[in-house]
Amino acid sequence: MTFQESLLTAAFCMMMVFIILVMISFAINIFSFVLGKISPREKAEAKASKATPKNPIEAPKPVAKDLPVFSSGTLKLKDVDEPTAAMIMAIVSDESGIPLSELCFKSIALIQQ
Predict the structure, then answer these.
(1) Interatomic CA distance for residues 111 and 88, integer angstroms
(2) What SS3 class is residue 3?
(3) Which residues pair with 2 in a beta bridge?
(4) d(CA 90, CA 96)
(5) pLDDT per position as a tens digit, 18-66
(6) Are 77 and 107 in contact (CB under 8 A)?
(7) What is the CB-side half-sphere exposure of residue 6 using CA atoms within 13 A?
(8) pLDDT at 29
(9) Under a CB-based contact definition with an 8 Å cutoff, are residues 93 and 103 in contact?
(10) Measured CA distances, 89 to 19, 22, 58, 63 (Å)
(11) Which terminal CB of the chain, N or C, has fewer other CB atoms within 10 Å?
(12) How far apart are CA 79 and CA 68, in angstroms?
């Protein structure tokens, strides 16, 4: 095989590879278009977008019904109102560096001096 024949064979092989890649690209686009038309997800999104209010502030937050409600027990307040107890819990969380969701308070009491 001469050098010119080798170049011709290489060019032919490269051309075939690019043609096959273009054909695969077209096939992917066609499948994407067809599946996009028959997808029920888009229909559900269209219905949901019509039902949501225009103002994002008034939009209701989705509630996960299948997740269990997180509770770490009960908190007993002794001579302390709820806003003060919330402030104490926030300060303890900030000073200790532990997230509030990982802390478990059993009781908060007012100490008389």
Answers:
(1) 14
(2) helix
(3) none
(4) 10
(5) 999 999 999 999 998 888 788 766 566 666 666 555 555 555 555 555 5
(6) yes
(7) 3
(8) 94
(9) yes
(10) 67, 63, 30, 26
(11) C
(12) 32
Cross-strand pairs, 76:
107
Which has more pLDDT, 103 or 96? 96
Closest CA relative to residue 80, chosen from 109, 106, 113, 112: 109
Domain boundaries, the chain: 3-51, 63-113
C-alpha–C-alpha distance, residues 102 and 97, integer Å: 11
Find tokens 């939009």 and name the residue.
59
